[in-house]
Amino acid sequence: MSSNLQFTAEDRATLVQTAKRFATQAMAPHVNAWDEAGEFPRALHLQAGELGLLGLGYPEHLGGTPAPWRMRNVMSQTLARFGGSGGVMASLFTHNIALPPVLKHGSGELQNEVIPPVLRGERIAALGITEPGAGSDVAALRTAARLDGDQYVVDGEKVFITSGMRCDWITLAVRTDPTSKGAHGISMLVVPCNAPGVSRSRLQKMGWHCSDTAQLRFDGVRVPARNLLGDEGAGFRMIMTNFNGERLAMSAIALGFAQACFDEALAWARQRNTFGAPLIERQVIRHKFMDMQMRIQSTQAWLDTLGGRVDEGDDGSDWVAQVCLLKNHATQAMQFCADAAVQILGGMGFMRGTVSERVYREVKVMMIGGGAEEIMKELAARQSSL
Fold it and tell me: Which of 25, 244, 271, 362 sits most deeply, having the most CB atoms within 10 A of its CB?
């Protein structure tokens, strides 16, 4: 994961300007309508691709822009803060959890086939790990892939798959060794979603309404053997490593949403008059904002530190433990700020269409997705040799 690419103040300012403009013009004005529709246009992928937002952190020869983690975190945080939609963020950037294993372990031929069209926004990539009977316990997954000549035949199902209804490619965790019931029998396979035998069912959710989430079935799906990532049986380690980047990105996004709640609540408190004075003049309200800032600033400092460490090549056990704890801290900060913002907005905070109401509903999936709080604490403890 490490990157020693330079990241200047000018780079940061340019990226923030680009991401903020995209969020405020292409995302925020349409989010309510997209939530009601249950989806957003695929054209948004093309817009983000043209601006280079989808390709940030990927090699130039595949159509990306190499960038350190600190730069990627800034983009995620800015888009979340000014776009105000977890649903858009989840589906627009699912490739950032689907493509890293392809980039690290796929053949050059497979990389060239899959990655460039996704970074341009022409195709959508998703990740398939979770199953109805195996969530956090990845080693218990049962979706099977057996080799038949020069093809794998895939049977099984996945659930809670972000972009599952629209994805063109899915990076799929499968069991290639039926004699192994644990981690050693798991492999990673890139599956084209237009292959015969792939079926999908839309799932209804508490939040992320404009992000499609699906249950997928694979019934005798034939996949070229060249679509295997790395060696058979090496998939579990790929999955665990991939989670680290996902959790760091989720921390940045959660921070952006915490800031979005702060921004909306502050604007409301300044213009809302109660008993002859603006709400912001009430001491109890000002203290709520300070409680929010305590959590926002501590999350920012922690995120910047861990981004800097991985950019310098420090991604060992302690770093992994810190990322797990940061993910918990960032999503708890998001939860606190969403709750405080809804309270400050009062009745308006209960209305559909406010950012705070949306984030309030969406915070739980951030606390569960990518590794639930309880799993994060235990993993952090083990990485810390406790």
Answer: 362
